[in-house]
Amino acid sequence: MSTAALNPLVDGGAESPKETWLRLLLIDAGLPAPTTQIPVLDGYWPVAYVDMGWEKYKVAVEYDGDQHRSDRRRYVKDQRRLRKLEAMGWIILRVIAEDKPDDVVRRVRAALITRGWRP
């Protein structure tokens, strides 16, 4: 594959190799390319930045590495953040290493369709 062909796939917003893998999985499955590091605002101030998603549909996909489970403080912060985002109308899909790629794609596709996206 040429460098020019790869340019549309490059995105500086990924904060980990797994986030890059997840974004490319979704694109390869025919879903619209997600935006990375979306600021979710409460008025003028960001409440959170979601790993990737579609602001138009208020659907976000977050890759949760082991630190989200093993660090209690991080876990509590994540849960509070998740509740705040859901209260603002966002669907947050959490992905972990053990998830099967086909299941991830199915979940994301279903959430997007629920919010009005048409394949």
Helical content class: 40-55%
Terminal CA distance reads: 26 Å
Q: What structural category arises from helix and sheet content?
A: alpha+beta
Q: In what range is the share of β-strand residues?
A: 15-25%
CATH superfamily: VSR Endonuclease
Number of helices: 5
- Number of domain units: 1
Identify the CATH class: Alpha Beta
Q: Return the CATH topology.
A: Endonuclease, Chain A
Cα radius of gyration in angstroms: 15 Å
Strand count, sense and barrel status of the largest sheet are: 4 strands, mixed
CATH second-level architecture: 3-Layer(aba) Sandwich
Q: Per the principal axes of the C-alpha atoms, what is the gross shape?
A: globular
Q: What is the spatial order of strands in the main beta sheet?
A: 1-2-3-4
Protein name: DUF559 domain-containing protein
Pfam family, one: DUF559
Domain DUF559: 50-99
Organism: Mycobacterium noviomagense
